[in-house]
Write a structure and sequence with these properties.
By secondary structure, the protein is mainly α. Among the domains are: 2-111, no CATH class; 113-226, no CATH class; 310-403 and 406-415, no CATH class; 753-887, no CATH class.
């Protein structure tokens, strides 16, 4: 106490200590002593300041205390002293800072409150409307109307007034105005009725659209869901595009949009006229693609290359991103589903005792089925699949560019330039395949590209290296078989698949091998059934479907059409439940086509064509099977459309032949008109284009060559037919499908099939006759006559007499090229077999030749021989008539001058 009393004398400003200052912390907040000032060495005391702290930072000085040093970092408070001027200033600064921050916080809280923001937005919207910026005003009104403030109803009313007063708004603001209104309408449905919005939109477009075509087109895009009917909307859009192109002739966007409409209508000349002046400015727009494809068709490959290359490079990047995203989605969904099953979040049956008693195989099958179900129903996969489908539309364009580059390589002036262009084509084709690196998939894709580049020897060497490197693994065998099937090497593909089935212990690969084997073109119905029955249908739904398909095919071959229809409907029921991929659409289209053949309903053929087009759109790897099927169906669709204008095609019992058109004309002029119309049909042009594309993608496949030759023959395009035949002779095509059919079919099987065809045709003839359909009955009746003349029954006089009677009646009723041919054949058969009664040599010849060559060829060969019997045959009246009409073009104009491919 004496010491304290002494300190009081030394430091008179110090006051006695009443309470010890609080010193405590909690989470960085509390009280602490800081600083050392006014040190007195004699008494070993100094002054420390007591602070209120926040996060260990001094905020406010509460007082100052003189303390006595008692040890290292130890002291004792001896009295209270006044705060220093610095501490007082610090307190003032801190207080001002606290007040400022509190004020700012309060102001911020006030100004960011929904009510104040809504009031400010309402004022801004009103100002924007006065400035003529109605679209921006509508955005703000929509924002306020979507909230829950007091201004909600006022904003809705203001938005309603904007819409109803749209006639006074600047037209450039209407797209934004309608976009904001429609987005609000979809959520709340209480601004205006849909009918009123549609009326306002139509009125503004019709009254002011032609003056502002660009804004009008934007408005149409925004209000597409409102503007019905669609046909009227499309017509208005086209008119506005025409006006816009005239008003802004250098606008590439408008020109490309109009060119897309012309492209859908096959108006290629209009596309060229529209886009050619803008050739240098088209860049990567759709106009560049359309004009590039135009130049490709015309053979100007340099210009086509310059137009298509930037477009394709840009779109291929998008395609590869979409492919990766789609693949990643599959992995992600599969992984999440599997992890959920591990956690026990799957179906309730997993948590039951019954499930624990299942065998491992049953549990595995259940898990696989559950994961597959999740993959099918996943919205993520569905969205990624749609994005991939949109991006994959570039594939045919990229392929066209690759073909253009190949053509440029062929025309290159130097060998170095040729090699450079071939390398570019190779890189582009690989880019279409979507693979890179040195993986097995890369080498397999590289081999396929070598086939496309007409380097089949190099391609085979590449594939052999893959087989050696992988030690003929199941995966390599399967992937190679798929590629070989696409390029037309069916015989080699079949060998690899048989090897895969025999060598692979994995049931999955066995099923895949069988599934691919039955889709090869060089297997018979019996062979396909044999392979399918080797696999348990319970193991794979695809095998069950294929088994139904083959059973339907066999039933149709045997004339059991009711059973065939039942099998095919089961197949279609399965396809309708599957995610719509290129494979599903392709297989479904083939099933619809078979159904058309079984019951003759034209709607099924139309459905087949629609599904096949979707299959081609979704195909990202340029699948040759899909292209070939689409080409075949496209040309037949053109034929059917023309034929259906004259009669009910369903009465033809599902069998529609190209030669049926010869029932519709009887002179050269009408025949020429028919051929010209068919040749100019969009589907015919599409079929020819697809077959030509097949020459690149499937260089060893004979089907495309033979099919296109058949089209050229039907259209009487002699020059093109001859050029194609020369190409066929120089190409080493895989003819195994045709050899297989000829070698495996026995004579008895052929005879039984001909008998079935004869019965089916007779049934169709009687059906059409009962329906009193004149033309269908004549067509089916003429077919019946022709089959009768080719059958064994032709040796009997009563059958020849019936055939002659029917043919004469058909020719009298409908004097056309086809009925005349049938009538002459019947006369010729009557004459030939009448002579054969007295000439055993002719009888023996006719017996041998009947099932191999036609009556025309039989007669021509026999009469060309320098023998007395041949001369007697020539002097028969009906034989003379047949000979003159066959070999004298002036007497029978329609006799085809082009030999058939089969011959």
């Amino acid at each position: 106490m004496q010491q304290d009393h002494d300190l009081q004398q030394i430091f008179p400003e110090m006051k006695p200590l009443k309470d010890t200052p609080t010193l405590s912390y909690f989470g960085g907040f509390g009280f602490a002593m800081y600083g050392e000032r006014d040190e007195h060495r004699d008494t070993k005391t100094y002054v420390k300041t007591h602070f209120l702290c926040l996060f260990f930072i001094p905020i406010f000085a509460l007082g100052a205390y003189r303390v006595l040093q008692t040890g290292y970092e130890m002291w004792r408070v001896v009295g209270r002293v006044p705060l220093s001027s610095t501490a007082k200033k610090w307190n003032i600064v801190s207080l001002l800072a606290i007040l400022s921050l509190s004020g700012l916080g309060g102001w911020k809280l006030y100004t960011t409150s929904p009510l104040i923001i809504a009031a400010r937005d309402m004022y801004k919207a009103k100002t924007l409307k006065q400035q003529g910026r109605w679209g921006n005003a509508a955005k703000l009104y929509t924002k306020v109307a979507s909230g829950t403030t007091l201004y909600e109803s006022s904003a809705r009313e203001a938005l309603r007034k904007l819409i109803n007063d749209a006639a006074n708004a600047p037209f450039s603001s209407l797209p934004t105005l309608f976009k904001s209104t429609l987005s609000f309408q979809r959520r709340f449905r209480d601004i205006e009725s849909t009918v009123n919005l549609r009326r306002i939109a139509w009125t503004q477009l019709k009254q002011r659209g032609s003056t502002y075509p660009k804004h009008a087109l934007t408005l149409i895009d925004v209000t597409a869901s409102l503007l019905t009917p669609a046909k009227e909307r499309h017509a208005l859009r086209k008119n506005l595009l025409v006006i816009g192109v005239k008003k802004y002739p250098k606008d590439v966007t408008l020109a490309s949009a109009l060119a897309l409409i012309y492209e859908k209508k096959q108006m290629w000349s209009a596309c060229y006229t529209l886009l050619s002046p803008l050739k240098a400015q088209l860049g990567t727009t759709e106009g560049a693609r359309i004009l590039g494809q135009w130049y490709t068709k015309k053979g100007d490959f340099e210009t086509a290359h310059n137009l298509l290359l930037p477009y394709v490079e840009k779109k291929l990047k998008v395609l590869h991103k979409a492919e990766k995203a789609f693949s990643d989605a599959f992995v992600e969904v599969r992984q999440k589903t599997f992890e959920a099953l591990k956690r026990g979040d799957g179906p309730t049956i997993l948590r039951t005792r019954a499930f624990s008693r299942w065998s491992k195989a049953d549990k595995r099958r259940f898990v696989i089925n559950h994961i597959n179900t999740k993959l099918k129903t996943s919205t993520l996969i569905s969205k990624r699949r749609e994005a991939l489908a949109r991006a994959s539309r570039i594939s045919p364009v990229a392929l066209s560019l690759g073909i253009v580059i190949l053509q440029r390589a062929k025309r290159a002036p130097s060998k170095a330039l040729k090699q450079k262009r071939l390398k570019l084509a190779e890189r582009l084709f690989l880019s279409i395949q979507g693979v890179a690196g040195q993986s097995i998939q890369y080498h397999i894709a590289l081999g396929q590209v070598y086939y496309w580049l007409d380097k089949s020897k190099k391609a085979r060497q590449t594939f052999q290296r893959v087989l050696t490197k992988t030690k003929r693994s199941p995966k390599a065998l399967y992937l190679l078989a798929k590629i070989l099937r696409n390029v037309g090497e069916l015989a080699w593909a079949k060998k690899l698949l048989v090897e895969l089935y025999k060598r692979s212990p994995n049931k999955k690969y066995k099923i895949s091998a069988v599934n691919l084997l039955v889709h090869l073109g060089n297997t018979t119905t019996e062979e396909r059934l044999k392979w399918l029955r080797k696999v348990d249908p319970k193991d794979a739904s695809a095998i069950r479907v294929q088994l139904n398909n083959v059973l339907a095919e066999k039933a149709m071959e045997e004339g059991r059409y009711t059973q065939a229809v039942s099998h095919l409907r089961d197949v279609l029921a399965f396809y309708r439940t599957q995610p719509k991929t290129s494979v599903i659409y392709n297989n479904g289209a083939i099933t619809y086509l078979s159904l058309f053949g079984a019951n003759g309903i034209l709607e099924h053929f139309t459905k087949a064509y629609q599904w096949m087009q979707k299959a081609q759109e979704l195909s990202t790897k340029n699948d040759t099977t899909t292209l070939s099927n689409l080409a075949s169906i496209a040309f037949n669709h053109a034929v059917l459309q023309r034929l259906n204008k004259h009669m009910d095609v369903s009465l033809l019992n599902g069998v529609v032949q190209r030669e049926d058109f010869s029932f519709l004309y009887k002179d050269e002029k009408s025949r020429r008109a028919y051929i010209d119309k068919l040749a100019s049909h969009p589907d015919t042009k599409r079929a020819i284009s697809l077959y030509k594309k097949m020459f690149i993608l499937s260089p060893k496949g004979a089907h495309a060559y033979f099919s296109l030759a058949g089209i050229y023959a039907h259209l009487n395009q002699h020059k093109k037919f001859k050029q194609l035949c020369e190409k066929i002779n120089t190409s080493a095509l895989d003819l195994s499908p045709y050899k297989q059919k000829q070698s495996t079919r026995k004579e008895s099987e052929k005879r039984q099939q001909n008998i079935r065809y004869l019965k089916d045709t007779k049934r169709a003839f009687n059906r059409a006759r009962k329906k009193k359909a004149t033309l269908p009955s004549i067509i089916t009746g003429t077919r019946y006559v022709q089959l009768l003349l080719r059958s064994r029954n032709v040796i009997h006089a009563k059958h020849r007499k019936r055939a002659l009677s029917l043919a004469k009646r058909f020719y009298t009723t409908n004097p056309s090229a086809a009925t005349r041919r049938a009538y002459i054949k019947a006369q010729l058969a009557s004459g030939l077999y009448a002579v054969a009664k007295h000439q055993p040599a002719l009888a023996r010849f006719l017996k041998r030749a009947r099932s191999h060559i036609s009556l025309t060829q039989q007669f021509a060969w026999w009469t060309s021989r320098n023998r007395p019997q041949s001369k007697n045959c020539w002097h028969t009246h009906t034989s003379k008539l047949r000979y003159n009409c066959t070999f004298n073009p002036s007497k029978l104009f329609h006799q085809r001058a082009i030999p058939s491919i089969g011959s």
